[in-house]
Amino acid sequence: MRRLHPALLAGLPADVQRPGYDRKALQAGIVQLGIDDAPRALLAAVTDAAIEASGDLRWGIVGVSLDRAHGHEALVRQNGLYTLALRDTEPNGLVRERLRVIGAVLRVLDARQNPQAVLDQIAHEDTRVVSVSLADDETTWHEGGEEADDDDPAYALAPRGAIGLLVHGLKQRRGQGGAAVSVLSCDDRPANGRTLRRLVLACASRVDEDLAAWIDGNCAFPDSMTDRIVLASDDGDRARISQAVGLEDGCPVQAEPYLDWVIEDSFVAGRPPWEAAAGPHGMVRLVPDSAPFARLKQRMADGPRAALAYLGAVSGMATTSGTFSQPHVRAFIDAMMREEIASTLDDMPGVDLAGYHARQLARLSNLALSQGTHRSAANGSLTVPSCLLAPLRERARAGHAYDRLALAVAAWLHYLRGQDELGLSYPVLDPQADEFARRHVDAQHAADAAGDDPGQAAWRVMDAMALHTDIFGDLTHQPDIARELARKLALLRWAGVRGAVLDAA
């Protein structure tokens, strides 16, 4: 089978979409630092659609591979082309897949082999936007935007890692008399632009204080909210997609059709007409402030997804879709969204909350997007405070019931034990897993020594966790919430997930 190549696009099957613009005429207006699946399913796919819809050819993308993983060599051999496979489920339950070859990525640079080429591209006069996808080891991305330790590779003076490359590229750009650029985070994190700005300025100040001042005064770091599920691809997926395309594709990307991308419109050197890329399932919005949309997504999308993951993992279910297919779980998630979470959100112009609610339920029902419960349960210490605990506290302060939110948080606490209700152990995927395990073990040992019943044992666990102020804040001063969480945790222990969910329904 021949490899995907620009010269072969005209021969693609009729049901495979391909770029409807002249790739040879594209200018490289965007540098994408980190070219793994997520930015290719978001930035590159949306930019591709925007170029086609508008005819504006200034916004081709130069991708930068930071670690030679994620299909780097295949992307190079394919001249930046790859297939985007959008997967969902038809009413009859069959999986449907829509394919489009994305043409917006003009070429891919290898940062490890030739970092100077990356700096040259950032400094090039045609570059107007630098988009960044940070590696997990470059920053912990705490919600407050904490900066990395001084020993973090991202802060080394050599241009390595996304932050180092960006800073040294901007240094070269400034030295050449170039104009400022906009730096856009593609990471699905709260306040991603502000956090990225802090990280960049911290690194730049170590290189040159004047450079840091120039970046601070000239470059824009718009916040954004991103929401699209991207699936990992294995050899079987690559073979299936290649067969459908009729050409070998070594680096396809699989994602859901749903897309919600909200970007603060504060660019200093122009931007692609991304809003022109809106489709039947996707929406790109340029707004003055993305924070309300981030809050909506955290609570009405991330919160239900997290609750589903913890309930599924604790009950021994393998996938989120399998968990959601159980009528009592679906009814629980639906009611938690409608009766508890929705009331914590302000009215937003242009947002139909009921429609948003329905779309989130449809996403959870999408069998083509089924993810492992443990993968979906990862990193709860970074997400639970904003997507579940925050609305729970607001309901409590208003004197409203929060039964379902309390059960969702308790399911997370139960998940941290590392053993499901079938007695099977699993690794807890969380940056604070060791600390959580220690607290659980200490509390359980104390309960065993005291001969506690399940309710008393659950209270000991809750008491130990409540002292973790980074997550629970002032929970020690909110005994009603702590008591309810302990009650839900005890219920999960003796009645199981099904019994606890039915009790909260």
From TrEMBL:
GO molecular function: oxidoreductase activity, acting on the CH-OH group of donors, NAD or NADP as acceptor
E.C. number(s) listed in UniProt: 1.1.1.-
Domain Mannitol dehydrogenase C-terminal: residue ranges: 291-447
Keyword field: Oxidoreductase
Top EC group: oxidoreductase
All residue ranges annotated as the Mannitol dehydrogenase N-terminal domain in the record: 29-275
Domain of life: Bacteria
Descriptive protein name: Polyol:NADP oxidoreductase
Keyword Magnesium found: no
PANTHER family: MANNITOL DEHYDROGENASE 2-RELATED, MANNITOL DEHYDROGENASE DSF1-RELATED
InterPro entries xrefs: 6-PGluconate_DH-like_C_sf, 6PGD_dom2, Mannitol_DH, Mannitol_DH/Oxidoreductase, Mannitol_DH_C, Mannitol_DH_N, NAD(P)-bd_dom_sf
Encoding gene, per UniProt annotation: por
Gene3D superfamilies assigned to the protein according to its UniProt record, in alphabetical order: N-(1-d-carboxylethyl)-l-norvaline Dehydrogenase, domain 2 (1.10.1040.10), NAD(P)-binding Rossmann-like Domain (3.40.50.720)
Organism in which the protein naturally occurs: Bordetella ansorpii
